[in-house]
Amino acid sequence: MKNEITDPEVRMLAGISEMLRGDYEKENLEWSRSPFGWIKARPSRQVGKIGEQLVAGWCAAKDLSVGPSGDSEADRVIQGRRIEIKFSTLWASGQFKFQQIRDQDYDILVCLGIAPFDAQCWVIPKAVLYNHVIGHTPQHTGAGGTDTFWLSVVADDPPAWLSTYGGSLSRAFERLRVL
């Protein structure tokens, strides 16, 4: 493999890349100092699993019983309840986007959002999802867009209906504890 660019077209593309680089490095500067920054560098297919492991580890560390669900309809069983876990890092727009929310066999949806130096969490009963997410905010359009939904949450201004279900980790834990 070459260590220098000789093709003039590739050199031009590299120059454009260098001009764009500053815009993106500013965006990632906070994450580079964050204890969660390594997560941003993982492939998207791993990020969801990492979120599940973070929630499971946090619950176990807080002495809640945590186990596998035994099927793909829920991610974990926590305190005897079937839990689906969605995870998001903070987007440049200041939002968390919890994606691929489906109407599957779970009791509670746990949404964990990580910012460079903060975390927010909501513990939402599935019945509440029918009022605000499932059937309301399709993730995809067209014929295939009716089975997945997403929840966008502005980190500094979550929707009022979510306040009952957490926000801070301590408030979310209180919701989990009373399952």
Describe the structure.
By secondary structure, the protein is of the alpha+beta class. Helices cover 36% and strands 26% of the residues. It has five helices and eight strands, in the order αααββββββαββα. The chain has helices at residues 8-33, 37-40, 44-61, 126-132, 169-177, and strands at 66-68, 76-78, 81-89, 95-101, 108-115, 118-125, 149-154, 166-167. It has a six-stranded mixed beta sheet. The protein has a two-stranded antiparallel sheet with strand order 4-7. β1 (66-68) and β2 (76-78) form a beta hairpin. The longest helix has 26 residues, at 8-33. It is elongated. The termini are far apart.
Q: What's the structural blueprint in terms of helices and strands?
A:
Elements: H1 8-33, H2 37-40, H3 44-61, E1 66-68, E2 76-78, E3 81-89, E4 95-101, E5 108-115, E6 118-125, H4 126-132, E7 149-154, E8 166-167, H5 169-177
